[in-house]
């Protein structure tokens, strides 16, 4: 039951990620649509699957508690008593369920927004930002569920494939700041920050040699799949319903997978080497995580301009932009390491494993 619930939430998150990549590519290659499209269906069905799975797990925990059976913290994390003790909700499933419920509610706001302002919308509308935040909350809940059972092999695999989904999805929310007058694209900052922090969190939760590389490898597989799937699905779906592609389309990388850091595996190797040295020499874990965050951010920041140049023939990146991106790597890497360490501590506290007892 614990395994089925965790993977059902993960499946919902994965379908939502596929849906957002498809939907963004659809708007880029085809243009205006209606609210009721297959990419939107994928987005909403993903949240519905995660929400229903979370609800089932909460009801199961509630029944178990009310019949006097203990609710293990390894099943979804610390049980939370709600409504005067009438409901018992494992923390992970509570968060993923709230994220899914808010997504469906903000979907109504999105429908209203499109009915007023049209369907060829941008990513930074209030309704879209709310939807992205809701999906992110669901994904975080799924990570808590896997983290609570991290002494099980299936949960470790779940962590290794959930972190890449978060790395792919969370920078999309930073589009909310794209209308501000900033010296650098906030999405680039989001890519550097979230990929660094989440890689550290994944390695810290797995706490085994090769953990960071496993996360980076899973991210590469996800990126390759979305790179192929998103434009293929947009073109195929448009042809099936008789819609033409936009005029003047130029070769460009698919937007969502194109923003995923392609060279994160280099940072993962550096993190593995750093963690190995820390284990051998009994170095202070807190400082090691700070250094690992900074190192990861510098690698991502230094390779992003190269990635853009290699994949997008229309990308115009000047030396000033490159210097600014790399310069931002250090402060955002330190912040990623600091918050990553805090998140690792909090996630490990949701349930103590057998080895830690």
Molecular structure report:
The protein has 357 residues and is mainly alpha-helical. It has 11 helices and 2 strands; from the N terminus they run ααββααααααααα. It has helices at residues 2-29, 38-66, 91-117, 126-148, 153-169, 186-206, 211-240, 255-258, 264-281, 285-311, 319-349; strands spanning 79-82, 87-90. The chain has a two-stranded antiparallel sheet with strand order 1-2. A hairpin with a 4-residue loop joins strand 1 and strand 2 (87-90). 46% of the residues are buried.
Topology:
Elements: H1 2-29, H2 38-66, E1 79-82, E2 87-90, H3 91-117, H4 126-148, H5 153-169, H6 186-206, H7 211-240, H8 255-258, H9 264-281, H10 285-311, H11 319-349
Antiparallel strand pairs: 1-2
Helix pairs in contact: 1-2, 1-4, 1-5, 1-7, 2-3, 3-4, 4-5, 5-6, 5-7, 6-7, 6-9, 6-10, 6-11, 7-9, 9-10, 10-11
Oligomer: single chain
Major sheet characteristics: 2 strands, antiparallel
Structural class: mainly alpha
Query: What is the total tally of β strands?
Result: 2
Low-confidence runs (pLDDT<50, min 5 residues)? none
Q: Can you count the helices? A: 11
User: Which strand order do you get reading across the main beta sheet?
Assistant: 1-2
Strand content: under 5%
Distance between the termini: 23 Å
The percent range for helix content is over 70%
Assign an overall shape: globular
The H-and-E topology, N to C, reads as HHEEHHHHHHHHH
């Amino acid at each position: 039951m614990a395994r089925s619930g965790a993977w059902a939430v993960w499946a919902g998150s994965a379908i939502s990620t596929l849906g957002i990549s498809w939907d963004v590519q659809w708007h880029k290659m085809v243009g205006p649509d209606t609210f009721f499209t297959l990419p939107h269906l994928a987005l909403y069905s993903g949240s519905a699957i995660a929400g229903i799975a979370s609800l089932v797990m909460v009801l199961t925990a509630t029944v178990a508690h009310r019949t006097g059976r203990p609710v293990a913290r390894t099943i979804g994390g610390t049980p939370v008593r709600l409504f005067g003790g009438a409901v018992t909700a494992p923390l992970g499933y509570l968060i993923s369920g709230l994220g899914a419920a808010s997504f469906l509610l903000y979907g109504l706001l999105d429908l209203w927004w499109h009915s007023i302002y049209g369907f060829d919308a941008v990513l930074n509308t209030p309704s879209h930002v709310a939807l992205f935040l809701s999906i992110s909350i669901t994904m975080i809940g799924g990570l808590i569920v896997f983290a609570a059972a991290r002494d099980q092999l299936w949960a470790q695999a779940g962590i290794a494939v959930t972190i890449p989904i978060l790395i792919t999805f969370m920078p999309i929310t930073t589009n909310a700041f794209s209308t501000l007058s900033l010296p650098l694209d906030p999405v680039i900052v989001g890519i550097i920050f979230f990929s660094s922090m989440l890689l550290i969190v994944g390695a810290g939760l797995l706490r085994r040699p090769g953990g960071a590389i496993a996360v980076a490898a899973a991210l590469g597989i996800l990126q390759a799949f979305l790179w192929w799937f998103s434009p293929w699905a947009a073109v195929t779906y448009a042809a099936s319903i008789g819609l033409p592609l936009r005029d003047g389309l130029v070769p460009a990388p698919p937007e969502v997978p194109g923003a995923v850091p392609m060279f994160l595996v280099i940072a993962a190797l550096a993190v593995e080497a750093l963690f190995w040295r820390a284990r051998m020499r009994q170095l202070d874990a807190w400082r090691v995580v700070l250094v690992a965050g900074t190192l990861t951010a510098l690698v991502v920041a230094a390779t992003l301009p190269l990635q853009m140049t290699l994949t997008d023939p229309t990308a115009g990146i000047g030396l000033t932009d490159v210097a600014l991106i790399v310069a931002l790597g250090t402060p955002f890497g330190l912040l990623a390491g600091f918050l990553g360490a805090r998140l690792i501590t909090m996630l490990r506290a949701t349930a103590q494993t057998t080895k830690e007892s």
